[in-house]
Amino acid sequence: MIEIKNISKRFNTADGIVEALNNVSLSIADGDIFGIIGMSGAGKSTLVRCINMLERPDSGTIEIDGCDIGKLSERKLRTVRRDITMIFQGFNLLMQRNCLKNVCFPLELSGVKKSEAKKKALELLDIVGLRDKAKAYPAQLSGGQQQRVAIARALATNPKVLLCDEATSALDPTTTNSILELIRNINEKLGITVVIITHQMSVVESICKNVAILDGGEVVEQGTVSEVFTHPKSKAAQNLVFPEMESGSAIINKAGDRIIRIVFNGASATETPLIARMAVQKGIEANIAYASTKSINGKVYGSMLLGITGDKEVVKSAIDYLTRTSDVMAQEVENYG
């Protein structure tokens, strides 16, 4: 269990004092995939760096399994950090080392024998699907492959917690989906607690179980992803869940329409669009109030808002139909707009 209690952090800058975090409190259960989301400057990266004390908060505590890690000596803190590893947007691989030696590096620092480190590193490269790239150098790999190597390296010390700081922000949607699937599999198979730091709601919707919304250094909303997805209360959450409202690009629906939000996370594209098929096969017609989707390699990514006239049974039937398609999420949104 990670207990973040009343964390505050300030920085002195040329423009004055910046309050990066203000009295932040969160509980992250063992084995969870927890999302921390917010726009640029919300305090996300500062918070994740406080979790492993790369940044020391000015006040408040971080407890890992009941231990206040802020009170540990530097030597003991280094030991704890083996249990709390990180991956980053920029991968942070050692360019002069091949993949195998990159994964071996934290093992070498821990005093593991070279033969044992090599064996462990090959096993980890196998887990991330890159055993055949063991002798390749980072510059010879794609961005997604480099991130897989970074994940393998992060797993080298058998951590309890994996912190992902904008780990997919530099990747295209198809590669992002494959990396998130890998992280999900690692969470399920190894039981590692995962904390996802991102500004992309699609990432949270795809992988996270619980989420906290950060805005101006404060937690303005938190709960299960489905709760925040369907009933965003704060302005910050509404802007993240419904960016079309912020941009003014949504079409106003006719009175009485119920709103369904659909997220496409790699659904297979077909000649007949899903909404048109629903109208033909189920007799449910929908007004598309907003759509921002793209097709990449035959897969559809993005989101859509539908206005449907009818009672709850009609909406339920529509959601049941839509979610039969793999990699499609759909839920009714109440009090939209």
What about the largest sheet?
A: 6 strands, mixed
Work out the strand percent.
Answer: 25-35%
Total number of β-strand segments?
A: 14
Structural class: alpha/beta
Average residue pLDDT: 86
Number of helices: 12
* N to C succession of SSEs: EEEHEEHEHHHEHEHEEHHHEHEEHE
**Integer-rounded radius of gyration:** 22 Å
Termini, distance in Å?
37 Å
Q: Which stretches are poorly predicted, pLDDT < 50 over at least 5 residues?
A: none
How would you classify the quaternary structure?
Answer: single chain
Overall geometry = globular
**Fraction of residues in helix:** 25-40%
Strands of the widest sheet, in order across it, are: 6-7-8-3-9-10
Structure description:
This protein is α/β, with parallel strands linked by helices and about 325 residues long. Helices cover about 35% and strands about 30% of the residues. It has 12 helices and 14 strands. The protein has helices at about 45-50, 75-80, 100-110, 115-125, 145-155, 175-190, 200-205, 225-230, 235-240, 245, 275-280, 310-320; strands at about 1-15, 15-30, 35, 60-65, 65-70, 85-90, 160-165, 195-200, 210-215, 220-225, 260-270, 285-295, 300-310, 330-335. It has a 6-stranded mixed beta sheet, sandwiched between helices. A hairpin with a 2-residue loop joins strand 4 (about 60-65) and strand 5. Helix 4 packs across helix 5 and helix 5 (about 145-155) runs parallel beside helix 6 (about 175-190). It is globular, with a radius of gyration of 22 Å. The model has no long low-confidence stretch (mean pLDDT about 85).
